[in-house]
From TrEMBL:
One of the record's GO molecular function terms: alanine-tRNA ligase activity
Species: Aspergillus aculeatus (strain ATCC 16872 / CBS 172.66 / WB 5094)
SMART domains: tRNA_SAD
InterPro entries: Ala-tRNA-synth_IIc_core, Alanyl-tRNA_Editing_Enzymes, Thr/Ala-tRNA-synth_IIc_edit, Transl_B-barrel_sf, tRNA_SAD
Coiled coil segments of this chain: none
Protein's recorded name: Alanyl-transfer RNA synthetases family profile domain-containing protein
Family under the similarity heading: Belongs to the class-II aminoacyl-tRNA synthetase family. Alax-L subfamily.
């Protein structure tokens, strides 16, 4: 079953109430699903699915959200049970299957939990908002760097973006062409000029023909929605990229962007970057 991804239209949501559609021990998953649960222990860990989700699944160079999913009380509680004690499921990793189902991997933190959860049982999802904000700022910073490099093309001669990673401690943007450390002050200056301008960042859905007409870079892949429209992240009217990730509302919210390192390999320049963990 395809999961409705609420973050695609409103990345400011940090909590929602939805319904449980399934939960299974990781050991009972199919082989492709087990592959998605890499580094998650098998014993006492589960994959939980819901009808909707505010949790961002790992992908597009952005790490997944973490957080909790809570049921208000134990189903079928007896008079001797504490029916007010919520069932808490800690979400450690979120991944999306090829058919669009979003799997929340984690474990129950409460002493007891149901051996079976009835389909359509209500549950409240809450993501770690601080971590989401950090990941969103890193992702938006990558787009800002891409825009800055395009604006600097006449001076630097760097061509299109070929790869992006927006994960903490690994964040980088790669471009065709060769740059060196002496270019770093120029790049960082242009990047943070865009930050200081607090340009609006917004999400829209485009027809594929619009994307083809504007020759947008497809390196981050397509997030296709209803009617075959593609999700686009725009910075004012200066930049537009197909993107399935989460972003902050304007460029000023990323905080100061530091270009940590400029490196080269096989005709490609990698710009490693970071933003403050908190702003």
């Amino acid at each position: 079953m395809t999961t409705e991804a609420l973050y695609l239209d409103d990345a400011t949501l940090t909590t929602t109430t939805t319904t449980i559609t399934s939960y299974r021990p990781i050991s009972a998953l199919s082989d492709p699903e087990k592959t998605l649960a890499k580094n998650i222990p098998t014993e006492n860990h589960y994959a939980l699915t819901t009808r909707q989700t505010v949790f961002y699944p790992q992908g597009g160079g952005q790490p997944s959200d973490t957080g909790v999913i809570q049921l208000p009380s134990t189903p079928n509680a007896t008079d001797n049970d504490d029916a007010t004690n919520p069932i808490t499921f800690e979400v450690l990793l979120v991944r999306k299957t090829l058919d669009g189902e979003i799997l929340h991997f984690g474990h129950f933190t409460t002493p007891t939990f149901p051996l079976s959860l009835a389909s359509h049982a209500l549950a409240t999802q809450t993501i770690n908002a601080v971590t989401r904000n950090y990941h969103s700022r890193l992702h938006t910073a990558g787009h800002i760097i891409g825009l800055a490099m395009r604006l600097l093309t006449p001076e630097l001669g760097v061509r299109k973006k070929v790869k992006a990673n927006h994960a903490p401690r690994e964040a980088c943007m790669e471009f065709e062409g060769l740059l060196y450390n002496e270019h770093r002050p120029l790049i960082e200056g242009k990047v943070n000029e865009l930050v200081q301008r607090a340009l609006p960042v917004h999400i829209s859905w485009w027809e594929e023909r619009e994307i083809a007409a504007k020759e947008l870079n497809m390196v981050e892949g397509l997030q296709v929605g209803q009617g075959g429209k593609v999700r686009i992240a725009e910075i004012a009217d200066l930049d537009a990229n197909p993107c399935g990730g989460t972003h902050v509302a304007h460029t000023g919210l990323t905080g100061y962007i530091t270009i940590r390192k400029v490196s080269r390999q096989k005709g490609v320049t990698k710009l490693s970057y970071e933003v403050p963990v908190e702003v």
